[in-house]
Amino acid sequence: MFRILTLGMVLCLVACQDPKTTVDFIVSNAKIYTVDEAFSTAQSMAVSDGKIVAVGTNTDIDSKYEALNRIDAQGNALFPGLIDAHAHFYNLGVQQQQVDLVDTHSIDEILERLKQFAAEKNPQFLIGRGWDQNDWEIKEFPTKEMLDALFPDLPVALTRIDGHALWVNSKALDMAGITKTTKVSGGEVVLKNGQPSGILVDAPMQLVRNVIPELSHKQQVQALLDAQDISFAHGLTTISDAGLSRDVIELIDSLQQTGDLKMRLYAMVSNNPDELAYFLEKGVIKTDRLHVRSVKVYADGALGSRGACLHEPYSDLPGHYGAMITTQEALFDLAAQIAQSEYQMNTHAIGDSANTTVLKAYKSVLKDEQDRRWRIEHAQVVRSEDFDAFSLNILPSIQPTHATSDMYWAADRLGDVRIKGAYAFKTLLNKAGKVALGTDFPVEKVSPFLTFYAATTRQDTKLYPDGGFMPQERLSREETLRGMTIWAAYSNFEETEKGNLEVGKVADFVILDKNLMEVPFSEIPETKVLYTVLNGEIVFKK
After folding, report:
1. What confidence tens digit (pLDDT) does each residue in 228-248 have?
2. What CATH number does domain 98-209 carry, 3.10.310.70, 3.40.50.2000, 3.40.1000.10, 3.10.50.30?
3. Which of 430, 437, 424, 451 is CA-nearest to residue 490?
4. C-beta separation of 94 from 51 below 8 A
């Protein structure tokens, strides 16, 4: 009788236990950085229907859940899906169909790449991007004659690495109708011996772009899919695309609806009257993967091409101040127009004069509004008296690798005094409370690990300079990770749905072969992605 009672009690206990909940999958044996308020860590995570169901120890999760699938992280670090707060996703894809001039170190190397591409592709218009005269032995702008000798009848247009200068040949100049008398507000047709040299800075570049054949629908689709493959391989799950046209935004939406494009995109609408009017009237667009609620505006050009607008002349070019692409009056009018909507104004500002003007324009219309989160993209050179204008309502959106790319020549442009307010990441964080971090690819490389490395070390990958460039402006590892996840999500009005690994948020995460929070800094640039998971789906596996 005793044995019968004992067996009955055991059966009752088993039957009375709560059954385990079935989930889509469990990740176990990981070091999970949740990036919650306490910056807590965990070992295991349960995911179902694209959302995080539970986070805890291996024992906790396994005692409550059973999974249809499982990922064994084998002790590797797991982070929230990485968010690039400022990049050019579509342009990255387009660039895959053009001549890649990144990391070229001489004009001869560029010309060789152009000849090879032209021979293989037989293009109607030869297009490339990525040259930087600062990487050459003679650090001067090139001229049209160098291209004319090879391509007298084929139009050529080569965009500088920062996107703010265009090197073209005579054929392209003729097609665009550009002569020595051409004047375009917000830029410069550079002359040499009284004639166009072949270099266009900022606004006049559009004259050439107007005569470049448009991409076909098939080419546009391929560009987006190529960019997605590259981004997923680098652990990116959300990208803020800094300047998209209506047709590309609508193409993105259609490809996301069919499931061909899975990447989450925060779209900044390109600033032109027709498209601005269309989107402001339509209002915010929000789906699971597309969010349209901001406008990308260009205040000035770039420092590398001396197009950034400064209060005082360039230290290495007396009498030259750079230029505003959008005038002060137009900036104030735009700010007033956008402020009447729910849209965010995200303005590219590099020079200290441009930053001063944008900050004044923002403050003039935001007044007492406390949650507009208008952004200054780059905030690259800021006067000491202007730092206090940054806040959670006027956010700095910065790209750490710009500092380590520009540090070789930035002081020459700015001098010893102004350089102290340049690339001031820690100062901006202290003033604003949050910073959104990005790469600005394809201006810089796609890798978010270079972003992490540059922010925390202020060095290039050769460990130069010793101790870091302006080391007082380094960010901590935790601040940097927040800037690439939850703070970036905040800058996109998406912090309630993504950016950290809390129950109820989307299951966007990456597993890496190196723990960014623990490995020696020198190892960070070589980090590889093992898994990229978006909405609970493995979209990249090494």
Report:
1. 999 999 999 999 999 999 999
2. 3.10.310.70
3. 437
4. no
Strands 394-398 and 374-378 come out as parallel
Q: Facing residues of 518 across strands?
A: none
**Exposure letters 136-149 (e unless 16+ CB within 10 A, then b):** beeeebbbbebbbe
Peptide bond into 465 cis (omega under 30): yes
Nearest to 541 by CA among 525, 526, 527, 530: 530
Please, what is the end-to-end C-alpha distance for the chain in angstroms?
A: 60
Beta-bridge partners for 297:
347
CA distances for 183 relative to 48, 186, 190, 205, 402, angstroms: 59, 9, 10, 12, 30
Burial of residue 113, with CB atoms counted within 10 A of its CB: 0-12 exposed, 13-18 middle, 19 or more buried: middle
Amino acid type, 519: V
How many Å is the Cα radius of gyration of the chain? 25
Distance CA 251, CA 485 (A): 26
C-alpha to C-alpha distance for 529 and 412, rounded to whole angstroms = 38
Kindly report the CA angle at 399 between 419 and 273, in degrees rounded to 5?
105
pTM of the model: 0.89
d(CA 124, CA 117): 12
Q: Report pLDDT for 3.
A: 44
In the three-class reduction of DSSP (H, G, I as helix; E, B as strand; rest coil), residue 194 is classed as coil
State the DSSP code for 32: E
Topology given in CATH for the domain delimited by 83-88+216-541: TIM Barrel (3.20.20)
Give me the residue spans of the domains in the chain: 83-88+216-541, 98-209
pLDDT recorded at residue 368: 86
Residue 324, φ and ψ in degrees, nearest 5: -85, 130
Among 103, 88, 101, residue whose Cα is nearest residue 223: 88
Q: What gap in Å lies between CA 517 and CA 227, rounded to an integer?
A: 28
The number of C-alpha atoms within 13 Å of 146 and in the hemisphere containing its C-beta is: 18
Which residues lie below 8 Å from residue 245, measured CB to CB, with a gap of 6+?
A: 270, 275
What is the pLDDT at residue 117? 94
Q: Which of 298, 292, 293 minimizes the C-alpha distance to 272? A: 298
Beta bridge partners of 265: 239, 290
**317 vs 425: CA distance, rounded Å:** 27
Q: What share of the chain is helix, strand, coil (3-state, %, to 5)?
A: 35, 25, 40
Cα separation, 83 vs 439, whole angstroms:
10
Q: pLDDT under 70 in the chain at which residues? A: 1-18
In sequence order, the β-bridge partners of residue 396 are: 376
- List the structure tokens of 451: 């972003």
Q: Are strands 344-349 and 374-378 parallel, antiparallel or unpaired?
A: parallel
**Tell me, what amino acid is at 472?**
Q
Cα 196 to the center of its chain, rounded Å: 33
Q: Is the distance from CB of 199 to CB of 146 less than 8 angstroms? A: no
Cα–Cα–Cα angle for 43, 47, 48, nearest 5°? 165
